[in-house]
Amino acid sequence: MFWKLQVSAKMSKTPSTTVSMIHATSPEGQVPFPRHMSFTHPVVAKKISFYKSGDPQFGGVRVVVNPRSFKTFDALLDNLSRKVPLPFGVRNISTPRGRHSITSLEELEDGESYLCSHGRKVQPVDLDKARRRPRPWLSSRAISAHAHHSPAAATPSKLRSPRRLVVFRNGDPKTRCTVFLSRRVTQSFEALLQHLTEVMRRPVTKLYATDGRKVLSLQAVILSSGAVVAAGREPFKPGNYDVQKCLLPARLPGISHHVYPKGNARSQSRKSGNWKVSIITSDLPNAGTSSQIYIVLYGQCRSSAPIYLYGTDGARFQDGHEDIFTITVGDIGTLFKIRIGHTNSGLSPSWHCKEIQLWNMNSGNKFYIPVQRWLARDQEDGAICREFPVLNKGQPILPVTVYEVHVATGELWNAGTVANVYISVYGEKGDTGCRQLLQSKGSFNFLRGQTDTFSLEAVHLGDLCKIVIGHDGLGPGNGWFLDDVIIKDPTTNHEYSFLCHRWLDQGEDDGKIVRELYARDNSIIFARQKLELNRKETWAAERWKFMKGNTLQFYNRLTGGFVRLHPDSTVDAVGEETDKYGLFDVVFNEGNICIFRSHEMRHLSLALDNSSVTGMACGGASTELRVLY
Predict the structure, then answer these.
(1) Is the dihedral of CA 454, 459, 464, 468 positive or negative?
(2) Domains, in order of start, for the chain
């Protein structure tokens, strides 16, 4: 007995409605009466595309929605959470412009597209651009969270190297540990919780992000900022969970705490120096901060490490309050600038600082620095770290400069990144410290073939010598191909070029995600080197066309026709695509030296004779043509 499946489709008000019947067919072709004749009711199936809010690099997923596949709207959200890479899963579906939210399966329309987000705030996406872009996680560099539907197989099995995760104890930011998300501990979300229970030596049943949002899956852990808060059965407890202090030194290991000394300053003794620091928070509304404040002192000999100003008697840095600290640093020499910043942690991290005063308790020197600036992601330029020069007779001894940083992402496929990118710029008068490149003049940063422009405010560094640039390796498809960085100094009107042209990717090149680049003294030499690299890459990608045995046609844009070689040895470029005299065989190939023989007349080849293109017998030096890019 053979079985034959007969499917008939009938058009109705719903285009995707199908009616199916199954009959048993005998070998003779007769159709006997079925044992149980059944007629299924029409099933409404909707084919819908879902895209990620604010991410044009996400190519979208297509889902068939019908009552059999998804009983409830929540079941659809859970399914999309495994396919759309959002840190806390898909919890909201809206129309492409983000104006209307979808709350039931009935509201979804067949053939339409929608945006997924984990909150009510939705960022529109150019859907035409997203449809043309390949999905980043389809390459070997991407961290795929979509290879399988089972939670145990999502993401961890594709990790090329263990990822670091900083785990804080709930309510106690000073108690923390670092774990590596290896395959053994990421078999499932429950396995990770069990591993954290052993490491933390206390029951861990829940995980939170540092801002208090609950982390519900293993995928959310890997797509998080790199730090989580481990809790038992108790609720989340706010605190100064200092993410940057734990992550950034490991991410950018090339950053030094030393500046370039003058003369024999390095040989001076580094005896301890006690400083008294007074910081006054403005009395503006919401000027206080819940974040952790740190300060860096720069002297003529060297700089201090970031010194975190912890409080011991209640809350610090509140509206209109003065906080006084005593810190100990080595012999840094004569102070010329400071850097003040915070970790952007807690429930209200924004901070407005009024002024800072410093006393060198060894020498008795006093320094007053008027600040009057916001350090907040949602205020002014979005910076949470600022530099201020020391005043001499009421005037700054060094100017504050806003450097213009141009970062060019390469043209290679999947060259862009969604990771957080950081940079540290070095000059003869110190460095800028680690700064995140956050707000560019474009809508989306670090896209393939795009040059992003950032503003970086710092005390003038003098002549620049190098940069350290890298990313935190977080997010799907985080690998990045950096072409070059150009920094413009408006004070001296000088440009500094830093050539990279390499991957910053754990799965490509040498596996590094941080690179140290040195300034090119001659911009002309820099441009020539970059052009030569582009030529080599282009030839490597296109040389297969000029291999022996291929048949080619040459199109001339100026004439709008194809190059053709006539029987009388004359050559023109006005032929049609179907012209038999416009076909050429590659019969000799050595490097980029080729002979293009006429496919129709085997005795003639393209040649150069006294700067004119003509036809000649094969084998002569005039017929050996060099292909240039």
Answers:
(1) negative
(2) 1-44 (no CATH), 46-133 (3.10.20.230), 151-239 (3.10.20.230), 399-541 (2.60.60.20), 547-626 (2.80.10.50)
